[in-house]
């Protein structure tokens, strides 16, 4: 039962990392090209997958270019000047 669990974890981790690799844009991949990461993940399931998760992809937002503000947040009644004016 223990060996089946280890093999199952390796398969799930490999499939997850390969899917994540394919879904990651090329400019966010670090240290190796995508084909190199795919080869590493496929040949060394545990080590390659963990290396991909830790070192392979850039985390967070890119700092290049201007940042657009998000949509305006809804205001509560006590923060809405039109509502307060009507009291």
TrEMBL record:
Residues 61-87 are annotated as: Disordered. Keywords: Cell membrane, Membrane, Transmembrane, Transmembrane helix. The keyword Transmembrane helix applies. GO terms for cellular component: plasma membrane. It is a multi-pass membrane protein. Residues 12-56 form the Cardiolipin synthase N-terminal domain. It is found in: Cell membrane. The chain crosses the membrane at residues 36-58. Pfam families: PLDc_N. The keyword Acyltransferase does not apply. It comes from the Bacteria. This is Cardiolipin synthase N-terminal domain-containing protein.
């Amino acid at each position: 039962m223990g060996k089946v669990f280890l093999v199952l974890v390796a398969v799930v981790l490999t499939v997850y990392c390969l899917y994540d690799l394919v879904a990651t844009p090329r400019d966010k991949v670090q240290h190796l090209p995508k084909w190199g990461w795919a080869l590493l993940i496929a040949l060394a399931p545990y080590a390659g997958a963990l290396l991909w998760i830790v070192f392979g992809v850039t985390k967070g937002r890119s700092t290049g270019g201007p940042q657009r503000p998000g949509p305006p947040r809804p205001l509560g009644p006590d923060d809405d000047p039109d509502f307060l004016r009507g009291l």
